[in-house]
Amino acid sequence: MQMQPARNAAGEGVVEDAARREFRDGMARLAAAVNIVTTDGPAGRAGFTASAVCSVSDSPPSLLVCLNRSASVYRTFKANQVLCVNTLAHGQEDLALLFGGRTPMEERFAAASWSSLETGAPALAGALATFDCRITEIVESGTHDVMFCEVLAVGLGESLPGLIYFARRFHGVAIPG
Ligand SMILES: NC(=O)c1ccc[n+]([C@@H]2O[C@H](COP(=O)([O-])OP(=O)(O)OC[C@H]3O[C@@H](n4cnc5c(N)ncnc54)[C@H](O)[C@@H]3O)[C@@H](O)[C@H]2O)c1
Ligand SMILES: Cc1cc2c(cc1C)N(C[C@H](O)[C@H](O)[C@H](O)COP(=O)(O)O)c1[nH]c(=O)[nH]c(=O)c1N2
Questions:
Q1: How many structural domains are present in the chain?
Q2: Ligand 1 contact via 51 beta carbon (within 6 Å)
Q3: Which residues form the Flavin reductase like domain (predicted)?
Q4: 92-108: per-residue pLDDT in tens?
Q5: Does residue 107 lie within any of the structural domains?
Q6: Is residue 173 domain-resident?
Q7: What is the pLDDT of residues 75-86, one digit of tens each?
Q8: pTM of the model
């Protein structure tokens, strides 16, 4: 096996870059639901697309969301301490792209209709499910913060085909039966 130098001529960490690339290639094969995670409160309104969302426990009902600390929305989530996970349906790919970065916040929210449950975080009309949450603990890990959340209210939308992100693309998932 040929060993790679730890750094290239420019002093960049090539081993680290290769490991990140390999990790991302692996993760691209791990299909995940697509969500828009929103917040509102004293620090203002914000939202971003997230595939790193996971159930933690059903008692108390809790989930986690991983958010990159370099995201423009990061400070707003950390300050507000509440969030709503809006799980997208097939057909909402455009919204996922809009909330996936670089678009001004008002433009992101103007593209859909919103209401609120208990915390005041925006709940998306037409989402498959909405999980209104209070952030109970934040654990820094690598580039991301893992936000552990207590689920205060769940909204169930229409039973529609789901949306997953797999192999760097969106795919619809049919309802069985
Ligand atoms: N968890 C995340 O932070 C995450 C997840 C998906 C997409 N994204 C963003 O969308 C861009 C495009 O993603 P893609 O799937 O088309 O191609 P990609 O090759 O950049 O990523 C492939 C997979 O690796 C994981 N990933 C990507 N960036 C990550 C990060 N910074 N931290 C942890 N995991 C990460 C995700 O599971 C992603 O689906 C990414 O470069 C990233 O900026 C971030
Ligand atoms: C399908 C898909 C899935 C994810 C993302 C993107 C896309 C397209 N992004 C990136 C995230 O949405 C993006 O960085 C934010 O919108 C913040 O961007 P701005 O810094 O506001 O431009 C993302 N970011 C993050 O911190 N955690 C995550 O789980 C995900 N998942």
A1: 1
A2: yes
A3: 27-172
A4: 999 999 999 889 999 99
A5: yes
A6: no
A7: 999 999 999 999
A8: 0.94
The answer to whether residue 125 sits within a structural domain is: yes
Ligand that lies nearest to the alpha carbon of residue 34, given by its number in the listed order? 2
Query: Is 164 a pocket residue for ligand 1 (Cβ < 6 Å)?
Result: no
**Segment among 2-6, 13-17, 153-157 with least mean pLDDT:** 2-6
Nearest Cα to 115, choosing from 149, 77, 158, 84?
84
Counting ligand 2 atoms within 8 A of each CB, the residue from 37, 45, 48 with the most, and so the one to mutate, is 48
Interval between CA 24 and ligand 1 midpoint (Å): 7
Q: How confident is the model at residue 176 (pLDDT cuts 50, 70, 90)?
A: confident
Mutational pocket test of ligand 1: of 17, 20, 27, the residue with most ligand atoms within 8 Å of the beta carbon? 27
Contact 121, 82 (CB under 8 A): yes
Measured by CA distance, the residue closest to atom 30 of ligand 2 is 50
Classify residue 18: in a domain, yes or no: yes
* CATH code of residue 113: 2.30.110.10
Q: Which residues contact 20 (CB under 8 A, 6 or more apart)?
A: none
The answer to whether the CB of 116 is under 6 A from ligand 1 is: no
